[in-house]
Amino acid sequence: MLEFGIKDIIDILLVATLLYYIYRLMRRSGSLSLFYGVLLFTVVWVIASEILNMRLTGTIMDKFMSIGLIILVVIFQDQIKRFLIDLGSQRRWWRWRNIFRHGQKREEQDHKHIMQVVYACMSMSKSKTGALIVFQRKMPLTDYEKTGDIIDADINTRLIENIFFKNSPLHDGAMIIADKRINSVGCILPVSHDMNIPKELGLRHRAALGMSQVTDAVCVIVSEETGNISVAKDGEFSIKLSGLDLEHILANL
């Protein structure tokens, strides 16, 4: 009889955790069908080589697995980078230290900056001025900032409205906010090719979703056609938001 001990339980838990993180990664990037395909191939490979001891089939599938892993790393290098950064940034004691040392003051400052963006989005929503604002979180967005114009300015409602004004030379592209500063404007973002995006959502929404799939950034969109405010986060949309909804989402993040 096979012995089943604590080591086996830990082994199963580790594999299950890894599969869960890979599933989340693929879901955010809109590649769930690929995840299911790779999972099925892996199950067949394990059954053939480890359980049934089919040497020829196992050897052939071993070669496919070796090549396939390299191909997957090349295709999903941005998602893998995001996963590793997210994994290495879970230092909770830093968060608790900041809460105890600067909690009240920092919360007030964060809320002040958030409200500047919320007021700007509400104003642009009324005038149907298109806008795309990206909030950096853990993952650096330096490569995307370089595609636009670096301005390094304070977060200000009027400045945001002026930048996205239709006749402004900087209104095309995205604005990137990092470290409580407007770092760059007119930035080019990766466009999502997810077929499930509603047809009424335009290029700004596709760029926002694409950015949220390859990074952990939060993207706020104001539609030029409808004036609706939306948020893209972790490869998913929250659409037709009120100013209060937007404030809550940004405050919680």
Describe the structure using short key phrases.
single chain; 253 residues; alpha+beta; seven-stranded mixed sheet; 7 strands
Structure characterization notes:
This protein is α+β, with helices and mostly antiparallel strands and 253 residues long. The chain has helices at 6-28, 32-51, 55-75, 77-88, 92-127, 142-145, 157-163, 203-214, 243-252; strands at 131-135, 149-154, 174-178, 181-187, 218-222, 229-233, 236-241. The protein is built from nine helices and seven strands. The protein has a seven-stranded mixed β-sheet. A hairpin with a 2-residue loop joins strand 3 and strand 4. The relative contact order is 0.11.
Major sheet, described briefly? 7 strands, mixed
Give the total of beta strands.
7
Query: What fraction of the residues are assigned to beta strands by DSSP?
Result: 15-25%
The Cα radius of gyration reads 22 Å
Trace the largest sheet across and list its strands.
2-4-3-1-5-6-7
- The portion of residues assigned to helices is 55-70%
* Mean pLDDT score: 80
Uncertain spans, ≥5 residues at pLDDT below 50? 90-94
